[in-house]
Design a protein that fits this description.
The chain is an alpha/beta fold. It contains 15 helices and 22 strands. Strands 1, 2, 3, 4, 5, 6 and 17 form a seven-stranded mixed sheet that branches. A five-stranded parallel sheet has the order 8-15-9-10-11. It has a five-stranded antiparallel sheet with strand order 18-19-22-21-20, sandwiched between helices. Helix 2 (50-61) runs parallel beside helix 5 (118-143) and helix 4 (84-102) packs parallel to helix 7.
């Protein structure tokens, strides 16, 4: 079995023009670990977020003496501490409240009174974060990764100076240093985030009370998710977006249905709208907006404004220029296919390099990077990284959109199947959404899959696996799917792509 897996892996790499010849390594794979980061390491990682901590654990598992440096004092980075994890906790809690208030009665469950206990809801979120960060520390100990708390910056391509929380400075040496410092909230000109009335996604996770009116600047993943949280809890939510569409990267057909669904949840949208001024001197916030192409100005009022206009690579204070590391015009570190920078021995992964700014992408970067360092083979195909919007319903996708295929001049077929025709979805009364599959017209190779439904983020991985192994729509259609399940909609959409579905 192991030999078969090895042969399959080599064949996979060869199809992508990646050499299967052994790579030369500059160290022996020993299991000797030092108790101090001051001794020379095989690998040093600056940043303990999803990319950094996963890289550290994988490096240690490969027998490399490894140190991870993290300034926050808690592992997991933005994702675990003030991003992916706490937002999902609030999305789930707010959904439970909304279901109890508006849906339970339809299922014969009568509740006399439903109230929001916001402090308890936030406490549950904080407990989840705390337990998970401690879990990563446990994994570090298990795998013998040395953990140094503090702010790291380069002294040389093989030395990192770390200012520790107690004000002392230590030097961590390494043969290979990986930058995994992630990203930070992108600011907007003329808008100062105070995390009280004008908040970033971080502040939106810890509001002390439910705002009557919330304005979200930016109709991307984060803005729509946080808008959903507070909208379910009772806020009047208005989303202001400069572009003509919400989530511009999303497949157009799915996007339209998604926006209609959010509008049914009373989320309002002002598209093609530019923010030109803000006044937070009073009790609330006044936002001055105008059409993106120019025109009459309008003043919007809110209790809280969430600035969610994207993220920027965080490399401040690393002294990259001191050692000559090249970056692009927006500050991303430039790397080759092995995640190496232009400076020998210095690497970068995750949000600080070009590619999707996603935690799971950073994790794959981290694994692949240390595999290369260890003389093995790593590979991440950014065209096959799934993306998920964790609203209700969720929207998940992988591969190309229909707009991209048209732009590229690719001939394709489309297969769609609505959850209204799925027996499990109808049985549990969550039949909103659809599955859409795009496949090459000649070969039937799957090029893109897009799902809008509850738990779409879980359903998408069948498609991710199929796309990574160049499967056809017929391959999925001929796989037996358990009945009744939501996953049957994927099978039916696949059948609709190469032939005809059964249940529609």
């Amino acid at each position: 079995m192991a030999m078969a897996n090895l042969a399959r892996r080599k064949a996979y790499l060869l199809t992508r023009n990646i050499s299967t010849a052994p790579l030369r390594s500059s160290f022996s794979l020993s299991r000797g670990f030092a108790s101090s980061g001051s001794d020379e390491n095989d690998v040093v990682i600056i940043g303990g977020g999803p990319g950094g901590y996963v890289a550290a654990i994988k490096a240690a598992q490969l027998g490399l003496k490894t140190t991870c440096i993290e300034k926050r004092g808690a592992l997991g980075g933005t994702c675990l501490n003030v991003g992916c994890i706490p937002s999902k906790a609030l999305l789930h809690s707010s959904h439970m409240y909304h279901e109890a208030k508006h849906v339970f009665a339809n299922h014969g469950v009568k509740v006399s009174s439903v109230e929001v206990d916001l402090p308890a809801m936030l406490a549950q979120k904080d407990t989840a974060v705390k337990n998970l960060t401690r879990g990563i520390e446990g994994l570090f100990k298990k795998n013998k990764v040395n953990y140094v708390k503090g702010y790291g910056k380069f002294l040389s391509p093989s030395e990192v100076s770390v200012e520790t929380p107690d004000g002392e400075t230590t030097v961590v040496k390494g043969k290979h240093i990986i930058v995994a410092t992630g990203s930070d909230v992108k600011s907007l000109p003329g808008i100062t985030i105070d995390e009280k009335k004008i908040v970033s996604s971080t502040g939106a996770l810890s509001l002390s009370e439910i705002p009557k009116k919330l304005i979200v600047i930016g109709a991307g993943y984060i803005g729509l998710e946080m808008g959903s949280v507070w909208g379910r809890l009772g806020s009047e939510v208005t989303v202001v977006e400069f572009a003509a569409d919400i989530v511009p990267s999303m497949d157009g057909e799915i996007r339209k249905q998604f926006q209609r669904s959010l509008e049914k949840q009373k989320m309002k949208f002002m598209l093609k709208t530019k923010v030109v001024g803000v006044d937070s001197s009073g009790d609330g916030v006044k936002l001055i907006v105008e059409p993106a192409e120019g025109g009459d100005q309008t003043t919007l009022e809110a209790d809280v404004v969430l600035v969610s206009a994207g993220r920027s690579p965080f490399t401040s204070g690393l002294d990259l220029d001191k050692i000559g590391v090249e970056t692009d015009k927006v500050g991303r570190i430039l790397v080759n296919e092995r995640f190496s920078t232009n400076v020998s021995g210095v690497y970068a992964i995750g949000d600080v390099i070009p590619g999707p700014m996603l935690a799971h992408k950073a994790e794959e970067d981290g694994v692949a990077c240390v595999e290369f360092i260890a003389g093995k083979h790593g590979h991440v195909d950014y065209d096959k990284v799934p993306g998920v919007v964790y609203t209700y319903p969720e929207v998940a996708s992988v591969g190309k959109t229909e707009e991209q295929l048209k732009k590229d001049g690719v001939s394709y077929r489309v297969g769609k199947f609505p959850f209204m025709a799925n027996s499990r979805a109808k049985a549990i009364d969550t039949a909103e959404g659809l599955v859409k599959i795009l496949a090459d017209k000649e070969t039937d190779k799957i090029l893109g899959v897009h799902i809008m439904s509850p738990n779409a983020g879980e359903l998408i991985h069948e498609a991710v696996l199929a796309i990574n192994y160049d499967a056809s729509s017929e391959d999925i259609a001929r796989v037996c799917h358990a009945h009744p399940t939501m996953s049957e909609a994927i099978k039916e959409a696949a059948m609709a792509t190469y032939d005809k579905p059964i249940h529609m």
